[in-house]
Amino acid sequence: MADFNRTVETGTQALLNYFQHHRHISRYLELSVIGAKGEIDKSNLTQLMKTSLNQFLIQVRKEYWSKLLEFRVVAKKMTSKRIKEFQTMLQKNESVDFTEFNIRTFITNLMKDYDSFLIGATVDVFDMLTHEYAYDEDIHNGNVHYFNGWKTNKAFFCNKKVIIPFWGSAFWDADWKRWQVRYDIKDKLNDIDKVMNSFDGAIEYTSIVSALNKALDEGQNHKIKSTYFEITVYKKGTMHLTFLDPDVLRRFNITACRDKNWLPMDYGQKRYNRMTSEEQKVADAFEGKKSYEANFTSEPRLFRGKTALQIEHLQESEKEAA
Questions:
Q1: In whole angstroms, what is the distance from residue 317 CA to residue 315 CA?
Q2: What is the DSSP string of 195-259?
Q3: pLDDT tens sequence for the chain (322 residues)
Q4: How far is CA 49 from CA 9, 25, 32, 56, 276, in A?
Q5: What gap in Å lies between CA 308 and CA 311, rounded to an integer?
Q6: Count of alpha carbons within 13 angstroms of residue 53, beta-carbon side
Q7: Residues facing 225 on adjacent strands
Q8: pTM check: above 0.70
Q9: Long-range CB contacts (< 8 A, 24+ apart) of 16-19?
């Protein structure tokens, strides 16, 4: 906020100085109004000054809202899709003031909608790891596993190992003789990590991108370990991701399949012997009775990250109260 206020104050003063001395310097210095819409009547000095100042403030606000999205506490909780939605909103509403109140409101709303946001993000990543890349070779290699869905005959879940085509992962740079992570796919890979992190609530984790960058710089392209995956990239143009935590994979699958109505909404929240015969058939096809019973929980939330967030918020509240 201090940096924003300083920028606004300095820029405003610079513009005022320019127009105060416009008569003397306009022949040598011409003001370029960035992002100005429509024709500007340069003979109307007052209007030109107002337009210039307004456009300056709009540009500064947009830049500082973008900087806010780069903060770790924000960036870790927003997928690339959510960030683009917010940026689109800023484009449509240029008058959103960059104030402490609005920043706090933004963060509060982000955390308030965390569950619904994560479900949407989980489904997006689920689709990306299953049918979005599920061409015949992928299905043959086991990217998806079909089961008898709750409301559809074509329900499926993400298997332990997934394969991503080369245009969605990394490539071999023949000129530099090294592997490179594709720049245009880093956001998608980061989205995968953000979703998986929501299922274990770890404060810190090693992302796919950071693990890849480190390993590829050292010439390693097989069995690279991030927090949630073992990663291998091939010159033929594919990336193989193998889940390391079966509990994270199970929670991921359940959340996506429940939202798609392929599993009952209360799946995993009642004992197997209390389920209807139709529900039992779905559980048998999805993971089997033994696995269902072993993982049974009365906890309605599948997002461990949400619980960790609530605990952190509670601790901060207790500190303030003390």
A1: 5
A2: HHHTTT--SS---HHHHHHHHHHTT--SSEE-SSEEEEEETTTEEEEEES-HHHHHHHHHHHHHH
A3: 999 999 999 999 999 998 888 888 878 887 765 545 555 555 677 888 888 898 899 889 988 988 887 777 677 777 888 888 877 877 776 778 899 999 888 878 777 777 788 888 899 999 988 877 655 554 555 677 888 787 776 778 898 999 887 554 556 666 666 667 777 778 888 999 999 998 887 778 999 999 988 988 888 889 999 999 999 988 766 789 999 999 999 999 999 999 998 988 888 888 889 888 888 998 998 999 998 888 876 444 555 544 444 444 444 555 555 5
A4: 15, 15, 11, 11, 72
A5: 5
A6: 17
A7: 230
A8: yes
A9: 16/49, 19/45, 19/48, 19/49, 19/52
**DSSP H or E run through 276:** none
Which residue type does 6 have?
Answer: R
